Amino acid sequence: MTDFNQQNISGQHFINGAWTSETTDFCSNNPVTNQALAFKFANASAEIVTNATAAAKQAFKQYRSIAPERRAAFLNTIADEIQADIEAITATAHLETGLPMARLQGETGRTCGQLRLFAANLINPIDNRYVDLANPERAPLPKPDTRLSTLPLGPVAVFGASNFPLAFSTAGGDTASALAAGCTVVVKGHPAHAATSELVCKAIERAANQCDMPAGVFNLVQGVTPEVSTQLVTDSAIRAVGFTGSLKVGRILADLCASRAEPIPFYGELGSTNPQFILPQLLEQQAQELASTQVQSMLMGHGQFCTSPGVIVAIKSDGLNQYKATLAQDIAAQSAASMLTSGIAATYQAQLETLIANPNIELIAQGESSPANHFTRPTALKVAANDFLASSEIQQEVFGPCAVLVECDDAAQMLLIAEQLEGQLTASVHGLEAELINNQTLIEAIAFNVGRIIFNQMPTGVEVCHSMNHGGPYPASTDSRTTSVGSAAMARFERPICYQNMPTSILPERVSVDAQGVKTF
Amino acid sequence: MTDFNQQNISGQHFINGAWTSETTDFCSNNPVTNQALAFKFANASAEIVTNATAAAKQAFKQYRSIAPERRAAFLNTIADEIQADIEAITATAHLETGLPMARLQGETGRTCGQLRLFAANLINPIDNRYVDLANPERAPLPKPDTRLSTLPLGPVAVFGASNFPLAFSTAGGDTASALAAGCTVVVKGHPAHAATSELVCKAIERAANQCDMPAGVFNLVQGVTPEVSTQLVTDSAIRAVGFTGSLKVGRILADLCASRAEPIPFYGELGSTNPQFILPQLLEQQAQELASTQVQSMLMGHGQFCTSPGVIVAIKSDGLNQYKATLAQDIAAQSAASMLTSGIAATYQAQLETLIANPNIELIAQGESSPANHFTRPTALKVAANDFLASSEIQQEVFGPCAVLVECDDAAQMLLIAEQLEGQLTASVHGLEAELINNQTLIEAIAFNVGRIIFNQMPTGVEVCHSMNHGGPYPASTDSRTTSVGSAAMARFERPICYQNMPTSILPERVSVDAQGVKTF
């Protein structure tokens, strides 16, 4: 692997098209060795944050009116520039996160795919726009010509996620959809992979220069103190926020956005236990396969996916006993591994300790132990349905490779769990087609508590496409009306505008009657 | 006119399909005579509010799964039943609001039109749904079948507006769009027209019975104390709120919604000054006509429209002098009249007194005075652009028949006003086509601060159609991403859901590949 060190990384902020110069305050860490890396970064001062939002505000005046085709070219060029530097980016991300190179290469591909999807949607819009033509003859009053389009909201603050250093970070889905919508962006880089953020920012910088974008279209501030975040979301120049992270931090920032003099939308994707409901007949037929698939899914990214399946719901049976046996065997064979940060590892271990000490919980199995304190063990636990329902603690997400099997006495108990679920990003139902047909009350109850309902597949792997929804009822996300993945993610950073009786000579192209996606009435 | 009295009006709440029995606490008033009417109403207790939300929650479990065609029939039947009782409804509304009968008949037609528009959209959906078909051969991972649809949010609380006793009240746009979306409803009737609310509620009751809807699909609570409102929006059963009213009350309720354990969307349409920008060449040609049209528009509903044009922006010129002369003459010829409530009249008078006392403001003209204290006089004021920009007080909405003419020295000053506008529902630009083409910077600046930009027409009269947007940047509304009028209003009460790998045998009809509005990729 290439030897990366401070000479590749400035450790500075990128504001209004230039790298700032500030003292260095913190390092990113290698979570595998649990040692600080050689990369050193500045923690953004209040002045730096103000400069960044002011740059984004100034650039918005130009960027908002740039034609969709030019925005598309910018997004595609960002993807090109990330691909051009993929070796350094993935190697750096590997140092900072410990995630395997293959995974990081895949994630880079996904990140570029997202940028290109929004670019394609700008060139061939898939959304509808509505035009109601004038009718001057209508009585008692003539009908005016009205046309419904959208405008970008303004500068957007984006918070990089710990668990996807590329796809949900600097040039991830929030940034891509905000830029596609015509918004300028200020990213707060996640301190756990600040060097990766800087390299991706440099790819965006090169793309902005090549595409002749206004300085300030994209800005990066680095920071490790909460003040950077709170100042950013309360700055009057910022008009919307994209965030992927914990419920605790997400709620603090959401509350700040709601209490501003002029409140702004806060899009927080906060996590989920992604329950797996297994129906009895399929369980009887495929117990071993279902258990092995569960373990594979919950071990992806060592359990640090938003869509990691952390709860399994099934009814007591011979099939379930077989399932548990395979689950125990497969979990026991897993290695311990580092987490994304030593902080995440410590939280996982503390949560697990509390759960294991709970008299209502039975330990099914744990993976191999490790002498390294910051390595965590995959774990499967078991709890009776009634005890699960009675304990909000057991129902909470454990961020990491842990799953709780909830044993139900009967189908009625399973339905009760479905009805009382907290909001989830996803849930899966595993069953034979005949039993799915016979369980539509259960399926409907689940659907009303999730953003994506999946049949006979695992929740890990969020397809980037037009019909994806990655979001869900609170606390899965702070705004269940929106998705952070897929074509509809762009709508988070737009608002409607109606043009009434606007002369054709000045009408925006996208609401002309022959524009693609225009429905005329 | 028929003689209506308490015998037609129970004064009670309508909960879970039945009228409650409670002591009576308040009367509605005749704002013209400024006397209490014979109608007496109960103020909802905490128990009543809880019963209403519990009924809506219980009914939601059934109503959410009722087919779109049956929901459409319900909406159409509500419209039929309102039409069937139009004489009593409009006569009662006339007593309670003082609004002219012709206006109330028109508003009833509009209310029924809205219900029928949403019904039509349920039968022939105009929105898109997206389907990405499976591709089992894709490498490295197969692509699952994903389909994006929507689900209703849950029980919705609706606050009736003072200024539209029908179109924005009991069966108004919020209720119609919530019911269309599959949400059940609890309306808090506006105390200024509580009897009208009851009659409309009875029309909904008859429709619910005829269409075999679940008891609790629609509930009405009457109330005059703030506690009724605050309890309603913080009740955990309520999942979204529709509100039309003042910034002050709207913001209080919005903050309560945001601070709940589980925050919910609050859709507040809070008002606007709807600035009229008049460009010089048109002003030169049509000064008198423009001034007369301004007065007609600002006198609609005695100035109590959300879209009343309360600010006029023009550049000093001979044309403007002519405009002012006609404005003064037309305003002086207007009669004083009662407002919707004596409270609104008092607020108008107090605001006006403060403005007239402001040394930077010049009184252009006032309408005839009246011996009745609760009658208000139409008023035109004048202020220099710099003084307008410097004073947030002068920029505030005066709810009633008042407009402030802002005199600019030049086009640069007009642009400054456009750029610094607070969020507005609408603004109009009046100009010859050639000067519109030459003022696109101005037009763009205005567009970014309004929900609807209008050319050479007045803002009063909100067309109910697919392409309408009635909403705008804060403080025009609390959620600029949504509209309270037109087809898109329904989306406020829905959220997306993705169905992944769902067997065709149980897939909802509306995401089948041959359903109307489905785009397949």
UniProtKB/TrEMBL annotation, chains A, B:
Keywords: Oxidoreductase. This is Aldehyde dehydrogenase (NADP(+)). It comes from Shewanella fidelis. Residues 21-472 form the Aldehyde dehydrogenase domain. The keyword Oxidoreductase applies. The keyword Oxidoreductase applies. Coiled coil: none annotated. One of its GO terms (molecular function) is oxidoreductase activity, acting on the aldehyde or oxo group of donors, NAD or NADP as acceptor. Pfam families: Aldedh. InterPro entries: Ald_DH/histidinol_DH, Ald_DH_C, Ald_DH_N, Aldehyde_DH_dom, Aldehyde_DH_Superfamily, ALDH_KGSADH. It comes from the Bacteria.
